[in-house]
Design a protein that fits this description.
seven-stranded mixed beta sheet
Length: 234
Amino acid sequence: MTEPQFPPLFSGLDANGADPFALACAEARAVCDAGLVAYDLAHATLRAAIVFAPEIPLRDAACMLPLCGVGFQNALGALAPPEVGVHLGWNGDIYLNGGHCGALQIAASTHEPDAVPEWLVVGFALDLWPPSDDTGLTPDRTALYAEGCGDVDPITLLEAWVRHTLVELNAWADDGPARLHRNWSGLAHGRDTEIAVAGQTGIFIGLDETLGLLLKSGDQTRLIPLTALLTEPT
């Protein structure tokens, strides 16, 4: 198998069937360099994770989750037919043409919003093939190759994800969160509908300036920060 090629300062690590997200977190705990990309190119699923080394508090650094989502949309948008629509759930879910197709997740060395994390990892998993030929059994779920993307090579998509994420990262570092806020909002799935996230339910009415979720329930609007999405690798 051809090994993926990444931009300078990024390095690849083949998980060889293991969970790249868990592997990236383990490597980060062992003080690997930022820019490590762990990946697993299985037949049915593409999985990958990037290690970051933020120099800002976690409450701000957690925007790497939606940033990597925008990077993914830009990557697939450049490779897929133009009629394929990519949208992103605030909790990290990935949708193709309205069907759930994968998800991003985030972990960090700390859960304290005001602390500067020693490391932060964002991973994603994308279904390439549906679990069954009878897609009517799971109408809310889909897969990359079920949506007219049969010519999209997983290695090419992985490489493009890292490149486009780097572009978004540089723009965010130069200009702050405004561009990311605008770009992600244009891809939002579930806006103005009732959603359940981080143990809370309400109408998704928008984002605050740090891309926290504004959730309305009755007359009350609550802010759920991106740090609520932090998870522990299994």
